[in-house]
Amino acid sequence: MRNSGSGLDLSILPRVINVNGTMTSLGASIMVPEAIAALQEIAPRFVPMHRLQREASQLIAELTGAEAGFVTASAAAGLSLAIAATMTGLNPGRAEQLPDTTGMKNRVAIQLGHMCHYGAAVDQSIRLAGAVPVPVGQSTQALDHQLEHALAGGDVAAALYVVSHHVVEYGQIPLDRFVAIAHAHGVPVIVDGASEYDLRRFLQLGADVAIYSGHKFLGGPTSGIVAGRRDLVRAAYLQNIGIGRGMKVGKESIWGVMAALNAWKTRDHDGIRAREQAALDLWQNAVAPFPGVTARRNPDPTGNPLDRLRLDIDARVLGASALAIVRAMATLEIPVILRDHEVELGWIQLDPCNLHPGDAEIVAESLVAVLTRARAGALPEPDVTAHRNGGILAYLNPDLF
Ligand SMILES: *Cc1c(COP(=O)(O)O)cnc(C)c1O
After folding, report:
1. Cα 98 to middle of ligand 1, angstroms
2. Boundary residue ending a domain (219, 249, 266)
3. Whose CA is closest to 69, among 249, 227, 235?
4. 380 C-alpha to ligand 1 centroid (Å)
5. Which of 234, 266, 298 is the last residue of a domain?
């Protein structure tokens, strides 16, 4: 069976149902039709790239309220480029010198509770530019005086603030307060909002640069958006002559994410929410008959307008652990990938953001089948250590190549 025009056979890849979220390991998100059309449109053409980025800047400015913006390869790339910008300014010699930061301010303050891992460590995106992360506070607590102390040295180029479900949810300095302290020390604030819905809030709260992923909620091709103060955006863009070269973005990603941004303006957000709620209802009803499974709606922890279904698994009552459910669902004929960040605490989540028509029903049927096997004591208990280290083991898998 040949796919339309590519010459490749798509059926060599398993069909996967993603109720995990916008995961890089699963190909991020479902690209919106406008973005797909944009890729097709621009692929055969030559385009003056600076001109294209200028158009992107205007659209980014319109949607984010920023003075300017540009598109890069990914949000992670945007982080390194924005950090670099705060060290080099508009000096091309300095941009070429990185990651050697001799003669530049090179420290970047970040709350320890924000030093998360989104598939790679956020502090490595700082170090990649040649900068040195300066952790503020402890894992579950950062206080104003600790940030002030970190910024007082005078060699701090930037302060980085991460908004994400991956970060510690309590005990951190709120963004507006973080900005006030940083600005009092003349230090710009960069916000990593890669996976956030609200394209305006962080700049409104005073951040100098906000970074978004183009391939998460926006449904664009793989890309990142750097938006904010004109001088910093220009300096970040300059990094394409240096460390940014290995993070090069193509014309197709720029045009594609522009189409996604444009579509975002008229997206039927209420309709999407209604469909998501219907899926959550379906799943909640499907698991209701199973003792040892408690289902409840879980609002997104960073305020994105979406709920997930949280399933608390009492392994002694059900007959299998939360991890056993995750593994069993992932190894079905049509694999269903659950959200398992907190699985060792005995709960899993189902994220309704990336469903194709018909997927929700398959998820419900799969849940019933797997929970029925669990109740019969027929689910094997997976190796917890192997699961915990699974992200790395997948890269090291000798069967890959
Ligand atoms: C996903 C994510 C990133 C990385 O985004 P990419 O565009 O995939 O590089 C960075 N930070 C946070 C908080 C994320 O959730």
Report:
1. 23
2. 266
3. 227
4. 33
5. 266
CATH number for the domain spanning 72: value is: 3.40.640.10
Instruction: Say what the pTM is.
Output: 0.96
Q: Is 318 helix (H, G, I), strand (E, B) or coil?
A: helix
Give the residue from 297, 227, 214, 311 showing the smallest Cα distance to 261. Answer: 214
Task: Name the domain count of the chain.
Answer: 2
Flag whether 318 is in a domain.
yes
Please list, in sequence order, all residues whose beta carbon lies within 8 angstroms of the beta carbon of residue 216, skipping any fewer than 6 positions away.
22, 28, 29, 194, 195
pLDDT in tens, 323-337: 999 999 999 999 999
Q: Which atom of ligand 1 is nearest to the CA of 163?
A: 13
Cβ neighbours, 10 Å, residue 170:
7
- Structural domain contains residue 3: no
Domain enclosing residue 111, as ranges: 31-266
Q: Is 284 in the pocket of ligand 1 (CB under 6 A)?
A: no
- Measured distance CA(218)–CA(304) in Å, rounded: 13
75 C-beta closer than 6 A to ligand 1: yes
The atom number, within ligand 1, closest to the CA of 223 reads 7
pLDDT tens per residue, range 95-153: 999 999 999 999 999 999 999 999 999 999 999 999 999 999 999 999 999 999 999 98
Q: Does residue 101 sit in the same domain as residue 240?
A: yes
Q: Kindly give the distance from the C-alpha atom of residue 280 to the centroid of ligand 1, in angstroms, as a whole number.
A: 26
Instruction: Name the DSSP class of 173.
Output: P
Helix (H) / strand (E) element for 382: namely none
Q: Does 162 contact ligand 1 (Cβ within 6 A)?
A: yes
Residue 181 falls within a domain, yes or no?
yes
Length of the chain counted residue by residue: 401
Same domain, 93 and 145: yes
Cβ-based neighbour number of residue 89 at 10 Å: 15
Kindly give the number of the ligand 1 atom that is closest to the alpha carbon of 76: 9
Q: Is residue 169 part of a domain?
A: yes
